[in-house]
Every structure is written in C-alpha cells, then in structure tokens.
Amino acid sequence: MDYFTLVFGSIFACIFLLFLSKRNKKLPPGPLQLPIIGNLFHLLGAKPHISLANLAKIYGPIMSLKLGQITTIVISSSTMAKQVLQNQDQAFSNRFIPNALQAHNYSKFSVTWLPVNPTWRTLRRILNSNILSLTKLDSNQHLRSQKVELKDVIWNILAEAGKPNLVDFFPILENIDPQRIRRNTDIHFNKLFVLFDDLINERLEEKRSRSIKNDVLEVFLKIREENSEEIDQNHINSLLLDIFIGGTNTTTSTVEWAMAEILRQPEIMKKVQAELAEVVGKGKPIKEDDVSRLPYLQCIVKETLRMHPPVPFLLPRKVEQDVELCDYIIPKGSQVLVNVWAISRDSALWEEPLVFKPERFWSSELDVRGKDFELIPFGAGRRICPGLPLAASRMVPVMVGSLLNSFNWKLEEGIKPEELDMEEKFGITLAKACPLRAIAYPI
C-alpha cells in the first residue's frame, strides 16, 4: 500500500467515524453547518428569535444548531417546552452562562446563574420566603413607590450582556476578550457593587442608632447574620443585582408594549378605563390589592406578555451530561434555548396570534405562572423567574392601570394608530425599537 493510499484512507476513515459518531448521537435535525462558524450566519441580523422561529417551521419544534463551538438545541413548541422545563426539569436545570456575566464573579453568587446546588436552594428560599412571598409583597407595598437611581448602570450592564459576544460561541477566545465585553461589564459591576457596599455600610450605621427599616436590604442583612457560613457580602450584592435587573428593564418594557398596543386600539382603552372607573374610581390611584378586581386589566397584561414576552428566549439552559429527549440525544455541554416568542405566536395554539386581543383570556384559565406551556414568559419548573408574583400580578398592572386611570392618551399629531411603529429591538430583553411617544391629557 503506497503512502498516498494510506493517508487518504486514514483521512476518509476519520471523516467517516466522525460522521458516524455524530449520527449515532441522534442529534435533533437542523440546518447545514459551515466549517468553523457552524450556523452562526442564521443569527445575523437584528431579530434572531424570528430567524430561529422560521427555521423551526422547517426542522421542527426541537432542532440542533452549531453556534461556533457550541452545540445549541432550540425548543419552539409548548409540548417540547413542557418536556424540557417540567418532565425532565432536573436534567435541564443548570444555566449556560454568557461570558459577560462571569465578570466580577457575579454568576458564581447569583441565584439567576448558579447551578442547582445547596447555595442556590438557600438563596432561592430566601427570595421566595422573605422577599417575594405574597405576605412580604403585601407588607412592603408602600416601599415600591420610592425611587432608586440605579437605572443607568443597570442598563449599561444589560446592553453589554445583550451584545453578540464571540467568546460565547468560541470559548477558546475567553482570555482574549476581543470585543472587551467582559472587561466593560466588569467596570459596570464594580460601580454597582461599590454603591451596594456604601448602602449596606450606611444601613449598618443606622442599625447601630436603632433606626431599623423593614425593607429588602434589612431582610438580606438579617439573613446574612443568621447564615454567615453560607451567605456573605458577595451573595447579598448579587441578589440585589438580580432583583434590580429582573425588576426594572423587563417591567418598563412590558408597560411600554402594553401602552403601545392600547394606543393602537382606542376601544381597548375605553373599555379598561370604564372598568377602572367602576372598580377604583376615576382618577384615583391604583393599589396592588385592586388588581384582583380588575379582570380586563389582567387580560391586557396577559395578552401583552403573550405577544411581547420580556425575554424572547428563556435564559439559556445547559446539560451537564448526555440527555435523551424524545428519541434524540442532547450532548453533554449543549446550550438549550426555549423560544418563548415563537411559542406565543404559534398559530396551532392561538387564534389570530398576531392580533392583540385581551378578550382571548376573558373566559380562559390560561395563566403565566408556569403551568400552561402555551404562555410561559417567566419560564417554568425549578428555574422559573422568582419575581413573577411581583411583576405579573402587581407592578405591571398597577403601572398600566395608573397611567390609564389618571389620563387619557393619544399619539403624536399626524400618527395614525395603525401606523405606530411596533418593531422590536432584540437583546436580553425584547424592547420597542422606537420608544413610544404619547400625549397625556385630562381624563
């Protein structure tokens, strides 16, 4: 056997074995991959969530992509989402962490990004029992009207984390950080954590003078004292950041989308204002405990969360070992994305999915609490967003209701409702590309 035949045969055998090994892994179907970049070209453009939703129409509700070095599984149906988030929740419970959020070791202390382990369970229990329980939310209702000037720093963090980062697709570049995204995020984290440290030190001084406030920071400090072996300052800083990130940009974005949709259909505004006038009283402030008596307002919030979920993809999951999912094998280390945007606009689940119709929920039992997989803007299973009770049932309806019960609203001169720009801007959150401009006038 000559040298050429030996080399050619060896190369052919390697390629065949590589192909065979990939085929034997029984990956879900997916589009053709290019060398090195894989399927990254499918994410080019401003709206990856729409690109992947269109691919799902070809390859099905579970498909595989290669994004650089990263095998990525995309889930695009409520049935498959239920399989991942509920039936096999444990296997898919850990996070795939964007490189930007590893800055300042944030992800090592954050309840959002920690793996499911004893520390995560402790932090989750703290949030569920001491911060976001219905009892605590009721007792701290008055504190949520106070203003905290953290918006700019938090938005800078979200902007950096939302940028397409080469390191997330090619981890080999981690130490180079070619786009400086991690370094920039580290600067913003440092500013925020210095601010948190100052707030905590100031609070400790107040406690020494016996001035005690029953707010989130007070709860965290008390828990740190009681669990000093498990919880330290890093956990407190990261928990505070989790709360601010989860409760600012997503909430304001949802309120903006709700108002935009209402302005496009003035009859919806009249209907909800009539409900508010009857239940609360025209011009009166909306309280959180009013929301349960405002069913049409609740329908508006649900429909907004359906059409404009705060995040187009649920925060990415990661499998720590090979997992069998519906006759496919999801390889160890794969990233798993659930395309909530695609599920929420699936014509097999929703009648006229592209039309904003709050009435679809009028006699429906569907809810956003992670039990109905047609509507999971906050996720489901053990990693469901812990801030769901605050955002969906309190902050968003109170803010939208207050705007509508205090003023009438109209678009700027010369803009017809049907001409309002409803384009989306893709990022960690799904914001309006063109900020809403509306005119308030007496009700």
UniProtKB/TrEMBL annotation:
Binding site for heme: C385
Subcellular location(s) per record: Membrane
GO molecular function: heme binding; iron ion binding; monooxygenase activity; oxidoreductase activity, acting on paired donors, with incorporation or reduction of molecular oxygen
Domain of life: Eukaryota
Keywords (A to Z) from UniProt: Heme, Iron, Membrane, Metal-binding, Monooxygenase, Oxidoreductase, Transmembrane, Transmembrane helix
Cellular component annotations (GO), alphabetically ordered: membrane
Pfam families: p450 (PF00067)
Signal peptide bounds: none
Family (UniProt): Belongs to the cytochrome P450 family.
Protein name: Geraniol 8-hydroxylase-like isoform X2
